[in-house]
Amino acid sequence: MTNKSVDRGVPVQQALVLHPVRPGGDASGRHPQTRLEEAMGLAEALDIEVAEAMIVPLRKTMPATLFGKGKVEELRLVCEAQELDVAVVDDQLTPVQQRNLEKAWGVKVIDRTGLILEIFARRARTKEGRLQVELARLNYEKSRLVRTWTHLERQRGGFGVMGGPGETQIETDRRLLAEKIGKLKKELKEVRRTRTLHRSARKKTPTPTIALVGYTNAGKSTLFNRLTDSAVVAQDMLFATLDPTLREVKLPGGRPAILSDTVGFISDLPHELVEAFRATLEEVQEADVVLHVRDIASPDSNAQARDVEAVLADLEVTEAGGRNLLEVWNKADLVPEADRDDLDGSARRNGAAVLSAVTGEGCDSLLRRLAALIDDEPEIALTLGSADGQALAWLYRHGRITGRHDGQDGGVELRAKLSSEALGRFERQFPTLLSSVDGSEEPSED
Which intervals hold domain Hflx-type G (predicted)? Predict the structure, then answer.
């Protein structure tokens, strides 16, 4: 008999984790063992104890159960012998397959999409995050109402809000679900409007934005904490971060920037979640620089990168769109010393930044590269008289002073960098003061 762990008096569910290998193998090129370990990590992220895990090759996929009849019986015996509570199938199951496997094995069956949705539901903290997860969950459940009810054959008469005569229970449930989905979409539309207003307000200040993206558990939050001196939750766990977090980071030269930590991507990310989190991912669309953080020590680093790039392409975040994209090869401290020369050489050829967010190695170099990427503002040279205090205060408030010399007569010679928008506003407000927009010139001696 299996001895189940207890946490605070609550029995921990025991799980069988299965990674089916479809005919032809994994299209992404990942090794089945790596995919199985990732599925185990997803289960453990829900505090499910993995009692048994196995790779299951499929000669062909069965419409009713995914697995063949013999394998279904074999796995039933495993569930029975170990008294398991849950079977996690690292694949997308149809509602029929899910229902049939639950009947055959006598345990709760959850597929990859359901598992990820459940993790998101537990981790979302903000109102926006909870709305997005709930919308994704309802869209997922919409096709699974058939397994939610056992009385679907029953019809009932009705009137008013309860439905017309002869409306079946499943029709009622679908209608109520559609109404709830519609309500959530309206609430998220309002969230998106509010977020757009906040972005518009940020655009009025000369503060560039930098977004961190990457595969889940690539170390984005650890890097975020390192660069901003923050304490965002950063754990060796899949989807430790769900809700976007924004903090200020100081770049070399003193210029501030806004750094945004976003939800991690994953292979076969449920379509429902991509759609639901589109409002959140708009932060990435609007960023001046996008840092693609990769776990370079992972054997699946290249495949993970392709998954992230596919989502970025779906969001139309590309270099062709005028954005700066920079790959950050994280976890360099986990790369064997014998492989470091090859890693550094490959990074130079690909224009990537190699670092370790844990040790801090390479982080200063990354900040310098970021400063170079976004520090393309025009520099002006000005000579202000003692009566031009209002203009001087305006420049300190809206720009960045890169050089200053105070004259004996109370005048000031200075160099300042302004965003194109701020420069236009300064020129309109103080048209007689602008003397140069050439960064190579020294302040006027006149």
Answer: 208-378
**Residue 8 in this model has a pLDDT that exceeds 90:** no
Comparing CA positions, the residue from 83, 77, 79, 57 lying closest to residue 68 is: 57
Rounded CA separation 444/446 (Å): 5
pLDDT tens column, 357-405: 999 999 999 999 998 887 666 778 888 888 888 888 888 887 778 788 8
- Residue 54 φ/ψ, nearest 5 degrees: -155, 150
| Residues forming beta bridges with residue 404, ordered by sequence position | 414
Which CATH number applies to 206-374? 3.40.50.300
The one-letter code for the residue type at 25 is: G
Q: How far apart are CA 412 and CA 90, in angstroms?
A: 67
Type of residue numbered 195: R
Least confident of 20-29, 197-206, 286-295: 197-206
Of 223, 364, 370, which is closest to residue 296 (Cα–Cα)? Answer: 223
Please tell me the number of Cα atoms within 13 Å of 203 on its side-chain side: 11
Which residues does 51 contact at the CB level (< 8 Å), separation at least 6?
2, 14, 15, 16, 82, 84
Token digits for 115?
A: 């598992």
CATH superfamily of this structure's domain 13-119: GTPase HflX, N-terminal domain (3.40.50.11060)
